[in-house]
């Protein structure tokens, strides 16, 4: 049975304090951190909608597994409903990726503003943020791929000539992808902790 997971990506709500930074660098980093708080409600809304759709998808998937091959018309109807939910998730994930892209554009400006700062605390903070951004992007890309795999799964399930072997092989790929997302998300959470810790040193 396919185990569905809702990817919870932590959102940053951090103001950098206590660091010995040049005033302009402090302001640049604080301004960037504040920009994350500005998009927090939007990200939370996206995650809520993703969770709602995944929950419904799980119900439809379980329904599909209980249908016999003779009930092909019903299978097609349920699979199409699941595909519609996947398409909606795809749009939501793209919205989150767009938010991340906008944040990265702001981050580029921070990097330019702090490029000449040789303070070790500043360098460590910038490295932690860079590492977090990279990890966040990786998780988003892997989750987006999982959405595509789910869509293919439902397409196969509604096909008349699909074999059990083919379904099983694809289902294994889906589960491997979700397992990968778990690992990548664990790394992401560690990067988040690094950013949070450095902001309070």
From TrEMBL:
| Keywords from the named record | Coiled coil, Signal
Q: Could you confirm whether the keyword Coiled coil appears in this record? A: yes
Where along the sequence do coiled-coil regions lie? Answer: 157-184
Any one Pfam family here would be YkyA
Signal peptide start and end residues? 1-22
InterPro entries recorded: Lipoprot_YkyA-like (IPR019454), YkyA-like_sf (IPR036785)
Q: Which domain of life is it from?
A: Bacteria
Q: What is this protein's name?
A: Cell-wall binding lipoprotein
Look up and give the organism this protein is from. Answer: Mangrovibacillus cuniculi
Top-down, what is the taxonomic lineage of the species of origin?
Answer: Bacteria, Bacillati, Bacillota, Bacilli, Bacillales
């Amino acid at each position: 049975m396919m185990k569905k997971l809702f990817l919870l990506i932590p959102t940053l709500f951090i103001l950098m304090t206590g660091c010995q930074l040049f005033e302009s660098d402090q302001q640049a980093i604080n301004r960037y951190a504040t920009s994350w708080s500005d998009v927090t409600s939007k990200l939370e809304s996206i995650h809520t909608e993703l969770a709602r759709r995944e929950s419904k998808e799980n119900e439809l998937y379980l329904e599909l597994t209980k249908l016999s091959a003779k009930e092909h018309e019903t299978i097609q109807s349920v699979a199409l409903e699941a595909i519609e939910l996947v398409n909606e998730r795809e749009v939501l994930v793209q919205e989150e990726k767009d938010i991340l892209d906008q944040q990265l554009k702001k981050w580029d400006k921070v990097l330019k503003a702090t490029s000449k700062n040789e303070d070790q605390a500043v360098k460590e903070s910038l490295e932690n943020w860079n590492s977090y951004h990279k990890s966040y992007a990786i998780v988003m890309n892997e989750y987006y791929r999982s959405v595509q795999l789910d869509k293919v799964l439902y397409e196969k399930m509604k096909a008349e000539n699909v074999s059990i072997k083919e379904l099983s092989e694809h289902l294994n790929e889906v589960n491997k992808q979700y397992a990968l997302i778990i690992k990548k998300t664990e790394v992401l959470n560690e990067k988040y902790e690094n950013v949070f810790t450095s902001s309070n040193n």
